[in-house]
Amino acid sequence: MSEALHLASLAMLASASLHAVMGLLTKRAGDRLTFRAVMMLAGAVFYLPFVLSNPFPGWDVWRFLLLGAVLHWTFQMAMIAAFERGDMGLVYPVMRGAAPAMAAIAALAFLGESLSLWEVAGLAIASTAVLGFGWPEKGGAPKLAALGFAAIAAVMTALYTVNDTAGARQAGDPLLYVGWSLIVASVPILATAAIRRGRALPGLMRQELRWGAVAAVFGSGSYGFAMYALSNAPVGPMSALRETSVVFGALLAAWVLKEPFGLRRIALAILLAFGLVVMRMMST
Asked: What's the predicted TM-score (pTM) here?
């Protein structure tokens, strides 16, 4: 494994763990829409000095930023709806699990990347295992609405992954693109919160400020690590590696939220790891 690929892999694992914590904080929030608005605003403020100290992006980058804002808004609204209708242990794996296969297909179609037969096999195993995390426990009824919104979130994840990867490559500086993306993407979610919460929004934002700011740090770190990895390695394998967040998420759901984990999900985690190892070994 080359040094660049090794660093990209470590960055994506860091992104996965930080993303799982961010998901946990979102699930625990009292008002999830306001929480996400606060988180996005805090992230934008965090990056503002950095982006203002660099040249203003041209249209070749802005077209990705604007499309990304739409995709990120749709993802966040679907994620909020999924969390409001189902346990983290149910919807989070589905949100993250369907994304790697979709991202790999989208990267093949739009970025010209290709996967070997072994990489496809590993990706299929990993994605199947991840989706298995969201399958109802024995005797439990599936929550179709929650799973439906989780599936929409997964589609948006795949789309914004490819879009933002192309944008970061065009910008030539992944962190600069991340900063502008957070600033631009914060506008629609703040507008949505203002419309839906009205005059109550300032008070709600104060209530969510502490953990929203913490989540912004985790979210910015997760996104930054992901963009670094995706800008320096193929999208398909890196996107799949990021989906190890479902393992971290399942552990956090069991440990913090006291949601059931069980032997079945342990077996799925092992299967997921096996699929990722197959894919990673065949990509070197």
From this structure: 0.79
